[in-house]
């Protein structure tokens, strides 16, 4: 009897293992996973970029990690272009996993960032069209950025002791004020921005939980766990409660923007323009409005802030590069006005600096996940329908062989022989906004924020290490790769 039971169990195990490896065999080959745990034991969940790097260095350019769910990685630029651009339609999906949907959207499948299909198309098209009406890609939006940057420079001017300044909050307020102004039509004052600071602090706390909680990962794999008493709360419920609390900022601001608005009025912000477009279009409703605002706020705020924080540290560390940038600013812009995007044509070094800041800061540990809508064939690799895909822009920007000594901060790498043109192949491979139809929807705004935010700071101040400190460029892995908190010395230049 016992022998039959053992034999039965052994047969079942062999069957399960064979089935598992058949399932694994459908995906592009990567490091061999173990049944159930996959490659999870080989994966550093907190410092993911380090794991992706070591896998990327030893695996083919398209490979799969089972963490423990299958996640296909693309680490070669031309293959990524073939996937996200040439076969773009097959890669426009986002995961429909319940945990992802409930945590990262105001309502499941609503808004832009996490939605899919027709709703995504409609929300993204509408959002971009409204932003264009408000001047995205044109002078109007640039004026909004310049005005927020002018407030920020004035705020830095007012700081009495410039010997040790923590630039994190001034940059955060400057960037947040841009998206706040676009969405809700008003800006925060530097000495009166508690709701904004509260939003940012709570959001960062929530993301820390998302990055570190193994129970949450379990709930993502087995979504039913969410509904179980106690374990449901600890794995998912408490983090979902944090997300709801944070979204209170968006709900309050949408209410505020609509409280005095009637659809016959000329809209003065994104929320009002969206409201005006609602009546004839059934896809535009209040839930999608909230979700879209939350997406643009969250995606448009921390990304540019973190990038600019890195920029200040790079230039405080490398004084000769800062001097070269300042000379170019002085020659082209002078000291009487803030830089404009039109100045860019005559400022190849400044453009190279922004590219190198984004490449070297490389703030995303991994790209936002995509999901394939059908089986896809790319140069002999087959990615099955429904696979999660990471177009690994972090790996590309820190390992592409065209970036010599990629760990070094060298804006000059982008300059052609004549010192005026930029090297196209390097510019093309600098892909912080990702590629294809689902690439960053705020790229046009971010580019203005980074160019004007950086050049205006260097125009007005010399950035130096605070007395007795060295600039530390080792990143701190959080939801983004953050710079460590550190103060720098500002010396007024103009
Ligand atoms: C340095 C700044 C920024 C970086 C590096 C960045 C990067 C990205 C990346 C990598 C994605 C995912 C693309 C993909 O799935 O392939 C994304 C998506 C998105 N970004 Fe940005 N972003 C930045 C700034 C902004 C700004 C300022 C806004 C809004 C004003 C914004 C709004 C969005 C939205 C709405 C999406 C979702 C697009 C979709 O799913 O269709 N981002 N961003």
How would you describe this protein?
Pfam families: p450 (PF00067). Its cofactor is heme. This is Cytochrome P450. GO terms for molecular function: heme binding; iron ion binding; monooxygenase activity; oxidoreductase activity, acting on paired donors, with incorporation or reduction of molecular oxygen. The strands form 4 sheets. The protein has a 4-stranded mixed beta sheet with strand order 1-2-6-3. Strands 4-5 form a two-stranded antiparallel ribbon. Strands 7-10 form a two-stranded antiparallel ribbon. It has 17 helices and 10 strands. A hairpin with a 3-residue loop joins strand 1 (62-66) and strand 2. The chain has helices at residues 2-24, 48-58, 77-86, 98-104, 117-133, 139-158, 168-184, 194-212, 214-221, 231-259, 270-277, 286-317, 319-332, 348-361, 393-399, 424-428, 443-460; strands spanning 62-66, 70-74, 370-371, 376-378, 381-383, 388-391, 461-465, 476-477, 481-482, 488-492. Helix 6 (139-158) packs antiparallel against helix 7 (168-184) and helix 6 runs parallel beside helix 17. It has 494 residues and is α+β, with helices and mostly antiparallel strands. The longest helix has 32 residues, at 286-317.
